[in-house]
Amino acid sequence: MQTTAFNIAAIREQFPTLHQKVHGQPLVYFDNGATSQKPLAVIERINHYYRKENANIHRGVHYLSQLATDAYEEARKKITRYINAAHAYEVIFTKGTTDGINLVAQSYGRAFLKAGDEILISAMEHHANIVPWQMLCEQIGTVLKVIPMSDKGELDMEAFHALLTEKTKFVSVVHISNTLGTINPIEEIIEAAHARNVPVLIDGAQTVPHQRVDVQAMDADFFVFSGHKMFGPTGVGILYGKEEYLNAMPPYQGGGDMIKTVSFEKTVYNDLPHKFEAGTPHIAGGIGLGAAVDFLLGLDWEGVHAHETDLLSYATSRMKETFPQLRIFGEAENKASVLSFLLGDIHPYDAGTIADRLGIALRTGHHCTQPIMTRFAIPGTMRASFAFYNTREEIDRMVKALERVVGMF
Fold this sequence. Notes:
Blueprint: H1 8-12, E1 21-22, E2 25-26, E3 28-29, H2 40-53, H3 63-83, E4 91-94, H4 97-112, E5 118-122, H5 131-140, E6 143-147, H6 157-163, E7 168-174, H7 186-195, E8 200-203, H8 215-218, E9 222-226, E10 237-241, H9 243-248, E11 259-262, E12 267-269, H10 283-297, H11 301-322, E13 326-329, E14 338-343, H12 348-357, E15 360-361, E16 363-365, H13 370-376, E17 381-385, H14 392-408
Helix pairs in contact: 2-10, 3-10, 4-5, 11-14
């Protein structure tokens, strides 16, 4: 049901995890960049599958198998509409963003790239968009090139255009940095790459919780994201790929459901999307992700954007006015609701541990972006990452808790 106005109280009521105490304190959950909380609609839909529909899909003629298959494939259709893919068979269920990137690297990369070809990524990538390409380089001799970034955490687009040469055969970049919050100019990146007939993969793991996605308007050749960051289950995600590429790519894994016929002499592979979905999938996860899409479609997205923009602005100003020793990492002009910071010489792990005892869930460490930490010569940061169910009052509690931290050190 479409929400007519952004109602934070009504939204929070739908997330049971938020209404509890940890260490005797009301929970403030600011670790949404790592995983989001789940609304009742998602929890109840997964529960219903296991109670009433539990069966394997695509293979059974019996009633429960048909119910499960219909629910799973309906979820695929919902996701197709949600990201505006041209066809449902361009939407591949995966284990998550990492799985999707590995699939493309090992399938497209090993089939169509060769020694000496260059793959272009950025300096702010998650390890999931670094390591699979390094592995491919070790396997076939491709070369990894990195787009540098500024002290503010913005990509050096002049350097990007210089790095994009006749040797570049693939570009894989993050849309929104999980550590810096930077929203990268992917339209410019895609347009420049396509001018050289170079395919582009976009890591959208941090995009889908914060904004609507239109993959056709974006014109990315591949777009990957995870269910658990968009208020859905863990262990399930999506690889969107343009039909022309997916049809040309060989299967990533072999086994059940990705075949048409098998003999000891030859196997004939299945059509899209099943060619890339070997074995029994995370059925409950896929159905739950469909329920998450239904939930997201019911939100007032103008209200969501305004609320999250306000949260980031308020948190940034409160932190700056309260802590003169504050260092913020990621101050891009175009930024999502992520605040990575250090408080003087206080180690982020120590600060995070104390904040936890006061009910504040922050992420501490390198956030699976160790090259970013190397770039800024720091061991890690504290990170507060906000979702539409967070409030200014929770930010005030975080600031108060961090004042306690500073007082202790």
